[in-house]
Write a structure and sequence with these properties.
Blueprint: E1 7-8, E2 22-25, E3 29-35, E4 48-55, E5 61-63, E6 69-71, H1 73-86, E7 92-97, E8 103-109, H2 116-131, E9 138-147, E10 152-160, H3 161-173, E11 177-183, H4 184-195, E12 200-204, E13 209-216, E14 219-227, H5 231-245, H6 265-268, E15 271-274, H7 279-290, E16 297-298, H8 301-304, E17 309-312, H9 317-328
Parallel strand pairs: 2-7, 4-17, 7-11, 12-15, 15-16
Antiparallel strand pairs: 1-11, 2-3, 3-4, 5-6, 8-10, 9-10, 12-13, 13-14
Helix pairs in contact: 1-3, 4-9, 5-7
């Protein structure tokens, strides 16, 4: 499977493999996940990991003008404490942030891979509508995603450079190169998409968002991040995504041309969802069961990485999976 979108460093050619260390930066906690035996580091997910966490106070972030959180001194302090406790040589690490730390666009462009400069100009202009004028300097990441309605589909993520630099800063000061900044949903999707054969939906509803990623033949084709104010509204958004990426075929429609409820795209398309126990996960699996859908693959470390052992620490399952996904993602 090709690598999901990430905010690559300005010099991505320096990164030859995924770092064996990952940090998950949340609004209330910073978590480190690394190999139990750092002297025997290999690419991919280590067989045994240790987990360290440090709480963050409510004032850990300041809201940038666009609404994207900017890390303050409290995040730097938490990072310093974790690094001291880890006491391991760490030349590089991945950083995972909440889905709502970024903005997403899906647009159609003519020959984007042949005209990358023009694509970035288009994306900057379009992101200006979401970030507001004047558009701040942005950290952009985009990729072609197959045929669109009027050209080639492009999936793009953006965040103000000020915010991205504030997340990376505490680690860079310690001599740690952040190979990539990824959102939770796409870090988890690097494990969840293969679990559904590379074709279907990966739903991640952790915290205040519900993110749906659609994959075809192992490649990311569509991405939607929505605020999950309640489980039913989040489920409605997921149903809209499913109807968009997998509309009913002609033989699945009634006499009046309307799709039959029993053949809802959300019921028939392969799906993986998590984290288990979240309200959105429960509503989603209940909908699938009610409409005769196949079982939903649970996005949890026990299901996706059963051979991985937590050697020390008491991790949050969602944070652990996001970190492991960041470690395992392909380049």
């Amino acid at each position: 499977m090709t690598e999901p979108l990430s905010f690559l460093r300005r010099a991505p050619w320096l990164r030859t493999k995924r770092p064996a260390h990952a940090f998950v930066l949340g609004r209330s906690r910073l978590t480190y996940v690394g190999p139990e035996k750092p002297t025997r580091v290999t690419a991919g997910t280590p067989p045994a990991v240790r987990v360290l966490s440090a709480p963050l106070p409510p004032e850990a972030f300041a809201e940038e003008r666009s609404g994207v959180p900017v890390a303050g001194a409290a995040v730097a302090g938490a990072a310093a404490r974790l690094l001291a406790e880890a006491a391991v040589k760490m030349p590089a690490a991945s950083l995972v942030v909440p889905d709502d730390f970024v903005h997403v666009l899906v647009v159609d462009v003519e020959d984007p891979d042949r005209h990358p400069k023009e694509v970035e100009e288009i994306l900057t202009w379009k992101f200006g509508r979401t970030f507001g004028e004047p558009v701040p300097p942005l950290r952009l990441s985009w990729r072609s995603a197959g045929s669109g309605v009027s050209g080639t589909r492009v999936l793009a993520l953006a965040v103000p450079e000020e915010a991205a630099a504030s997340w990376e800063g505490p680690f860079e000061k310690a001599g740690i190169r952040i190979g990539a900044i990824e959102i939770e949903a796409l870090a988890v999707a690097s494990l969840g998409a293969p679990a559904v054969g590379g074709n279907g939906l990966v739903l991640w509803a952790h915290g205040t968002t519900a993110t749906t990623a659609h994959f075809e033949n192992g490649s990311l084709r569509f991405l939607r991040i929505r605020t999950a104010s309640d489980a039913l509204s989040a489920l409605s958004e997921v149903r809209l995504t499913a109807a968009y990426v997998a509309p009913p075929a002609a033989d699945e429609k009634g006499a009046d041309g309307a799709a039959e409820e029993a053949t809802s795209p959300l019921a028939r398309i392969p799906c993986a969802a998590g984290p288990p126990g979240s309200a959105v996960f429960e509503a989603f699996t209940a909908f699938r069961a009610e409409h005769g859908g196949t079982p939903v693959t649970s996005l949890s470390p026990a299901v996706l990485l059963p051979g991985t052992r937590v050697a020390s620490g008491r991790p949050d399952g969602a944070e652990l999976l996001a970190a492991l996904g960041a470690m395992a993602g392909g380049d």
